[in-house]
């Protein structure tokens, strides 16, 4: 019987929708939740087990013994039918995770589906209301300490404010429509952390926050996305919702350490943390700096932008070097390995080949050449 049931389970894997994980779309799932009736990947199976057997009962497709009733349950349900039930009312602004997404995003998606049943009962979706307030731990601008700060999100006012003292004026007011938010667990070292990125006085500002409760930090992320979508729907009523969703939040195309030179051929290479945020290539002394040391706006190829392997004549080749050409100057950069260099070239080249949108042109126009503080630098800084 055991051998027969294992064969039946493997046959069910061939049914439409069952060949990928029911939760993250990872290919070739090796586990199943037999009471829910879905096929899932190894990563998601761990999250299912953590919810308890009263919610999800997990088995390996080959290594565990399958009972007739369990096989029958898998046959009756399957991934497609389960999605119709547990994902019936997923808000369009809710980010559906993919295999390589942060753990907190995948975990909260699974818990929202099966434990809290948020997508079967929309009244449980607190992040769609256009308003949210609460306390988050925020990293200091000048130091690495985190302090408790009150945040208020208001879709109606297009603002995200945070306060040092709860009943005083806000320390800062961010425009939701110009705000990007990404999960930052690897960089921050906290699994439940977010990075807010926005323009302030013509340069980019980073704010790092976290909350100990994964559900709460996930709700903040989704609330910002929902607020952005609702405002876009008002501003562009004729644009399809599917297209607007692509403009809510954008993960950084790539981050990591690179070496760069100054504008003179004799300048040496210095190590900097680089972040590619859509068309903004920012570099920092430290990965968690509040402001970039400099920013390079990457435009369209026909406007004088290009990237290639190697450096200009007279510049010392660091071994894994490449050059970014802009109308203002040539940036000489070097990666830590050949693979890393090729990845940087690939992502930058994909940006250069993409025509500019009106929104991107507006961002380019708002970026200023110098900051007004004591550490003022050129936007296309020589440092």
UniProtKB/TrEMBL annotation:
Molecular function terms, GO-annotated: GTPase activator activity; zinc ion binding
Pfam family membership, one: ArfGap
Residues annotated as domain Arf-GAP: 6-127
Localization terms from the record: Cytoplasm
SUPFAM superfamilies tied to this protein: ArfGap/RecO-like zinc finger (SSF57863), PH domain-like (SSF50729)
Keyword set includes Electron transport: no
Gene3D superfamilies: Arf GTPase activating protein (1.10.220.150), Pleckstrin-homology domain (PH domain)/Phosphotyrosine-binding domain (PTB) (2.30.29.30)
Keywords: Cytoplasm, GTPase activation, Metal-binding, Repeat, Zinc, Zinc-finger
UniProt-listed InterPro entries: Arf-GAP_dual-PH_domain, ARFGAP/RecO, ArfGAP_dom, ArfGAP_dom_sf, PH-like_dom_sf, PH1_ADAP, PH2_ADAP, PH_domain
Cellular compartments per GO CC: cytoplasm
Domain PH: 129-229, 251-353
Protein name per its UniProtKB record: Arf-GAP with dual PH domain-containing protein 1-like
Organism encoding this protein: Cryptolaemus montrouzieri
């Amino acid at each position: 019987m055991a051998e027969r049931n294992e064969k039946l389970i493997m046959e069910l894997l061939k049914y439409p929708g069952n060949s990928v994980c029911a939760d993250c779309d990872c290919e070739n799932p090796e586990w199943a939740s037999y009471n829910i009736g879905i096929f899932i990947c190894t990563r998601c199976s761990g999250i299912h087990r953590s919810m308890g057997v009263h919610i999800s009962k997990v088995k390996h497709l080959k290594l565990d013994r399958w009972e007739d009733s369990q096989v029958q349950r898998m046959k009756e349900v399957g991934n497609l039918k389960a999605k119709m039930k547990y994902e019936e009312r997923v808000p369009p602004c809710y980010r559906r995770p993919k295999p390589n997404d942060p753990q907190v995003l995948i975990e909260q998606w699974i818990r929202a589906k099966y434990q809290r049943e948020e997508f079967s009962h929309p009244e449980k979706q607190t992040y769609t209301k256009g308003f949210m307030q609460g306390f988050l731990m925020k990293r200091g601008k000048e130091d690495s300490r985190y302090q408790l700060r009150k945040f208020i999100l208001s879709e109606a006012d297009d603002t995200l404010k945070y306060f040092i003292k709860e009943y005083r004026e806000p320390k800062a007011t961010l425009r939701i429509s110009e705000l990007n938010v990404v999960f930052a667990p690897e960089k921050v070292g906290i699994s439940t952390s977010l990075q807010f990125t926005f323009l302030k006085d013509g340069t980019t500002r980073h704010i790092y926050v976290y909350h100990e409760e994964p559900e709460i930090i996930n709700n903040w992320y989704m609330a910002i996305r929902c607020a952005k979508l609702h405002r876009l729907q008002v501003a562009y009523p004729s644009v399809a919702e599917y297209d607007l969703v692509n403009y809510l939040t954008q993960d950084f195309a790539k981050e990591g350490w690179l070496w760069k030179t100054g504008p003179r051929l004799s300048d040496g290479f210095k190590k900097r943390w680089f972040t590619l945020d859509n068309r903004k290539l920012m570099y920092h002394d430290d990965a968690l700096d509040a402001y970039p040391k400099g920013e390079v706006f990457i435009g369209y190829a026909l406007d004088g932008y290009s990237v290639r392997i190697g450096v200009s004549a007279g510049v010392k080749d660091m071994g894994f070097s490449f050059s970014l050409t802009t109308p203002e100057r040539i940036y000489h950069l070097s990666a830590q390995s050949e693979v890393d260099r090729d990845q940087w070239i690939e992502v930058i080249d994909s940006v250069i080949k993409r025509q500019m949108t009106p929104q991107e042109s507006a961002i380019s126009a708002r970026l200023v050449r110098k900051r007004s503080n004591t550490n003022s630098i050129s936007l296309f800084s020589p440092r």
